[in-house]
Amino acid sequence: MTLSLSFGNWILALTPVLVVLVMMLGFRAGGSRAGGMGWLAAVTVGLIFFGAGFELMAVAQVKAILLSLDVLYIIWTALLLFHIADEAGAIRMIGRALPQLTEDRVMQSLLIGWLMVTFIQGTGGFGVPVAVCAPMLVAVGFTPIQAVAMASLGDTWAVTFGSLGTSFQTLMAVTGLSADALAPYSAILLGIASFPSGLLVAIIGNGWKSFKRALPPVLLLSVVMGVVQYLLATNGLWTLGSTGAGLVGLAVGFLLLRLPAYRNHHAPAPDPSMAEGGRDAGKSLWLVLICYVILVVLAFGVNLVRPAGAFLSQVRFSLDFPAVSTQYGWTTPAGPGRSINIFGHPGAILLYTSLLSFIVYRAVGYLQPGASKRILNRVVRGGVNSSLGILAMVGVASIMLHTGMTHLLAEGLSVSIGRDFYPMIAPVIGALGAFITGSNTNSNVLFGALQQSSAVLLKLSVPLVLAAQTAGGSVGSVLAPAKVIVGCSTVGLAGEEGVVMRKIIGYGLVPIATVALAAWIIHLLGYA
Amino acid sequence: MNHLPPFQWKKRLRVRVMLLIGQLVLPFGLYFALRWPSNLPAGLIAGLIVASMFFLVWL
Questions:
Q1: Are A62 and B31 within 8 A, CB to CB?
Q2: Spatial distance between the Cα atoms of A107 and A116, rounded to a whole number of angstroms
Q3: Nearest Cα residue to A40 out of B58, B42, B38
Q4: Measured distance CA(A213)–CA(B54) in Å, rounded
Q5: Residue A307 and residue A329 in contact, taking contact as beta carbons nearer than 8 Å
Q6: Could you tell me if A317 lies within 8 Å of chain B, comparing CB atoms?
Q7: Of the given ranges (A31-40, A178-187, A287-296, A354-363), which has the lowest mean pLDDT?
């Protein structure tokens, strides 16, 4: 039990989220300041209104640090890889090579901001696709704000079956349902979400005038990727859902470039600073891209070659926590906090990739003297602000979870909506959980069981409601401040996350609304 | 932060690095302090964590 459900209590539970949103969207505050304000609001509301005690707050905060370390491991190593690649000239050379493949800005934006993001989401988690692809978009001439917004929105549909299916695995674990039951509707809803996802990438990069031009390739690619993901997910290969869809999408995208209509469409020139070969003269494009090849090979190797994965997963760091309760009886059971897989973590994969890439680049002479110092300076400059923001945001999520605020928010949404409209609200609940926690997986942990119970009580299709939950979570996770901070960190927008948030929140409602509408129509048609 | 003069910028970065280290380390101190018989160390560390959040908002 937590506080009884009333409008006043519901608004109180929403207060920390409102504070973060108002600070970021209204006052254009950076993630660290907004997160700090949200954290102070969460502590105040938790202590005064939700009956939290000192021990509960302390446990929530220590657990938040463990969760944050899990994320920071990726942020710092993604930044390291990015700056090594940048120092070697990879980002500049992509910026010069892509316009040679196609001058069509719509296709450039779709190839990087949607297809490549989807492919990388397949193996990397927590903001890695945005952190890797946003600088590439800047390199071909999009503004940093456009780049983060495009890469974020291009990722909306790919999260559940991305990261080797971690979020989907979690949904199965918390609901006790099999992949056979959950995969079909999840793949259908996410496949439908891929269409607005691709269109938004084109529109953000090229304006509404590009709508007509983007429509045919986006329609074709979303159908192709949606079908590939459906086939993989429903045939036991859900761990490769996003990877496979992204790979086939990239192949079809490159085939489209062979059509004259998409090869040489008149386009504004990319950033002039990218146009000169100067310091990259004589470098091989394929050799300079070796860092991304190493990343993919290592990520697949560790995740798919079981003995390698098992060998690297032997050392884990975690702490045990006691059970804690609020004075209203909302209890978080005793147990270990987040377990950090020191050598098999996605952050470790990025670290190995960074070190190997550095060795290769140095051996072939692609790094200028003083490169190490420049790389480390840039990593620290980019990582500090983002890390402070992440610590505060994850702290907010943890306090809300331990005080029962998050549960109250979801309960309020579910009981105030009748049976007929619940399938429309289920994705919103999933998106809300992911927005608060910054993770599709965490949203499924928080609300998977609640959505299952609601579906049973309302006599709705449980697989459809849970699919709506995880599809909403997929979209909501990339709109979360915690993930926007990661994206901003690699394009020099650290501290200006509020501006990016303003841009993507409105657009992000489109894929959520699409998923909600699709779930509702499936429910009305009685297919579920 | 990038629009500040280099000297101020470096100083602010150094403060933020120290704040980050503090925010990462203090909760682990709190975890172990919670097991001690006296509440004073845990209370002090909790106070420092709250103060660090106020400082983050102010910075």
A1: yes
A2: 12
A3: B58
A4: 50
A5: no
A6: no
A7: A287-296
Question: Is B56 close to A33, i.e. CB distance below 8 A?
Answer: yes
- How confident is residue A336, by pLDDT bands cut at 50, 70 and 90? confident
CA dihedral (A195, A196, A198, A203) positive or negative:
positive
For chain B, say whether A37 makes contact (Cβ under 8 Å): yes
Q: What percent of chain A has pLDDT over 70?
A: 94
Q: Which residue of chain B comes nearest to A493, CA vs CA?
A: B2
Residues 6+ apart with CB under 8 A from A350: A74, A77, A78, A80, A81, A124, A128, A295
User: What is the band of A486 on the pLDDT scale with cuts at 50, 70, 90?
Assistant: confident
A186-210 pLDDT per residue, tens: 999 999 999 999 999 999 999 999 9
- CA pair distance A15, A416, nearest whole angstrom: 19
**Cβ contact (<8 Å) for B56 and A69?**
no
Q: Is A55 on the interface with B (CB under 8 A)?
A: yes
Helix, strand or coil, per DSSP, at residue A80: helix
Structure tokens that stand for A520 in this block: 């509702």
CA distance B48 to chain A (A): 12
Beta-carbon separation of A61 and B49 below 8 A:
yes
Q: C-alpha angle A94/A350/A368, rounded to 5°?
A: 55
Instruction: Give chain A's mean pLDDT.
Output: 86
Helix axes A405-415, A371-403, angle to 10 degrees: 60
DSSP codes, A379-425:
HHHHHHHHHHHHHHHHHHHHHHHHHTHHHHHHHHHHHTS-GGGHHHH
- If you measure CA to CA, which chain B residue comes closest to A337? B31
- Does residue A310 belong to the interface with chain B, where contact is any CB pair within 8 Å? no
Kindly give, in sequence order, each residue whose CB lies less than 8 Å from that of residue A52, ignoring residues fewer than 6 positions away.
Answer: A46, A60, A326, A399, A402, A403
The shortest CB-CB distance from A392 to any of B17, B31, B56 is to: B56
Question: Which range, of A160-169, A273-282, A291-300, A490-499, averages the lowest pLDDT?
Answer: A273-282
For residue B1, the chain A residues in CB contact (below 8 A) are 385, 494-495
With a cut of 70, say whether residue B58 has pLDDT above it.
Answer: yes
Does the beta carbon of A309 lie under 8 angstroms from any beta carbon of chain B?
Answer: no
At residue A413, the pLDDT reads: 75
Which residue among A58, A387, A494 places its CB closest to the CB of B42?
A58
- Partner residue opposite A319 with nearest CB, options B2, B20, B31: B31
